[in-house]
Amino acid sequence: MSCVLNINRFLIPNDVIVDLSDIYQYIGENTEVRNTASSDLNTIIDQTVEKDAYYLSKILGLDISDARTRLILNKNSNPRNKEENTLYNLKDILSSFQRESDRLPLQTNEFLNEINYVFNHYSKVRYDFVSTKKRSVLQGEGDRSKRLLLDEIIQEMNNILRTRKFERIILYLHFFIDFYNIKPFYSSSYNNVNDVASLLLLYNLMIKSNLECFHYVSFFELIYEELPLFKEELSNIAFNWDEGYAQTLGFVRFIMNIILTAYERNYKLMKDYKFDKNFKKQENIENTIMGMTKEFSKEDIRAIHPYVSESTINRSLISLRDKGFIAPTGKGRSAKWIKLERKRKHNNYEKM
Prior knowledge:
By secondary structure, the chain is mostly helical. The protein has helices at 14-27, 30-37, 41-60, 66-75, 82-100, 108-118, 146-162, 168-182, 193-208, 213-216, 219-225, 227-238, 249-277, 281-290, 298-304, 310-322; strands at 126-127, 129-130, 144-145, 185-186, 326-328, 337-339. The protein has 16 helices and six strands.
């Protein structure tokens, strides 16, 4: 039974109200954060999308090596097989959500177009039907397209939003719960089509909720860090959903925590970003490298300076290598580096 059609039964407990209050305070600072990122915003979003696609591939269990994954996501390498093609298309869809979410309505034809784009190298995905042996989600029984069920739920959700009868984020989460349990799609060649569609919908709903922290912090990275708990909450929202007794509160609390964690991380990232902007980027990178105490990689540097371009990191590494301060321990994109024991002559490091 639809959670959205019965949303009036859901009572928001005090702890969730407090979390929502904190979230809306953060949302109120969206413009200020956006102005801070200013000219680097597109670069930042590109990097976030790459991270989101990487961790989404891990969540879905795509059979692609880390090396190939990074080539596809970071270098736009051409896919070599169907799994890689799926990853390539997922990145495109996530990017469109980040940049065009306002222009992508929550409509059943959009959902179908999106999932068919992701799996355009498989047989066509279509809407499934409600079985005659299973009670319908809405009133009535019989073979009925699940697309019609979603249409009715979306219409009611839009009515609720238009009349301001319920808070948007909580309402969207319950729409996701309905979508996840309806499992609207059928594919003869890809078994997990509904899992992919549900995760894409959840991502889009976060962006549509004005949670701009997810422009800067990877949503799917946070999910991946809590993956066992996420899967447990998905099991909980499926239990007794057909009978109209879905346990949704645990899932709501889980996502509230993800959102708050994202904003907290974003606050720290923007603080570091402001600091970086006040110094020459290459000099700042070189100082970070000279502060490394063990073998390090480009990824270690990027973890400290997430919004610095790869070319700046490469220039810093080459500059310090040529001066004899560091040396590579291998070759290729995954090479690591070590500091060399020698007297530092460069003025910038004499006092270190």
